[in-house]
Design a protein that fits this description.
By secondary structure, the chain is of the alpha+beta class. The protein folds into two domains: 93 residues, 2-Layer Sandwich (Pseudouridine synthase); 132 residues, Pseudouridine synthase. The protein is built from seven helices and 15 strands. The strands form three sheets. Strands 1, 2, 3, 4, 7, 10, 11, 12, 13, 14 and 15 form an eleven-stranded mixed sheet that branches. A two-stranded antiparallel sheet has the order 5-6. The longest helix has 12 residues.
Length: 238
């Protein structure tokens, strides 16, 4: 029979920039001396926002929660391309940005809505023959990748001050938002890369209910217990 404790459940974290999702898992696990901690969907190091941790018996639900749809907001910088498609990469091109209005930008996003096959970037954790693509990219290698079927529900810009445009995007799991930024830059003829990214929601989990990592690491075990969503209540988030 499954033994459930008060520390079996989910913890909703507002991930800070500058650390990996694994770093967050490791710091929470070490701080509270937990045996099993996982997360439900990787965020790149400089991305912020919703990161759902699963503790103890709830780790068995990670794949289910990872499959949820996602909502993001962030900024795209036009006129500059990078090899990783985001601000962390090396500059690969710089071109003048054409005169654009917010309305013109939003007219371009229509082509991204719906089902599409998206090519994973070389700088990603996708594995080819057991080797993460980013390790091959560091060696200057580029290999053939298999496009993935994704779906973008909505993609809209709500502010633009050249060369930076602010957006909101809702999509299925496995969508690389930085690839969307790169492809938009190609469509505009000037290149682009993802400048900032924040995850707002994953399924029924929302960043508005999240706790900062700093706050969590300063909790007592009793405070952690009070803020863990109990295993038996996780059904409502499926």
């Amino acid at each position: 029979m499954l033994q459930i404790t008060a520390l079996d459940g989910a913890l909703v974290v507002d991930k800070p920039a500058g650390c990996t999702s694994h770093d967050v898992v490791d710091r929470v696990r070490r701080r509270f001396q937990l045996k099993k901690v996982g997360h439900c969907g990787t965020l790149d190091p400089n991305a912020t926002g919703l990161l759902v941790l699963v503790l103890g018996q709830a780790t068995r639900l990670s794949e289910k929660f990872m499959a949820s749809d996602k909502v993001y907001e962030g900024d795209i910088k036009l006129g500059e391309s990078t090899d990783s498609y985001d601000v962390d990469g090396n500059l690969t091109g710089s071109l003048p940005v054409p005169p654009l209005t917010l309305e013109q930008l939003n007219a371009e996003t229509a082509a991204f809505i719906g089902d599409q096959h998206q090519m994973p970037p070389m700088v990603s954790a996708v594995k080819i023959k057991g080797v993460p693509l980013y390790k091959l990219a560091r060696k200057g290698q580029e290999v053939e990748r298999t496009p993935r079927l994704i779906h973008i529900y909505s993609f809209k810009f709500n502010a633009y001050t050249e060369p930076v445009a602010r957006f909101r995007l809702a999509c299925t799991k496995g969508t690389y938002v930085r690839t969307v930024a790169h492809e938009l830059g190609q469509k505009l003829g000037c290149g682009a890369h993802l400048l900032t990214l924040r995850r707002l929601a994953s399924g029924k989990f929302n960043v508005a209910e999240a706790h900062t990592l700093e706050t969590i690491l300063n909790w007592s075990e009793a405070e952690l217990t009070r803020n863990v969503i109990p295993f038996l209540q996780l059904k409502r988030f499926e």
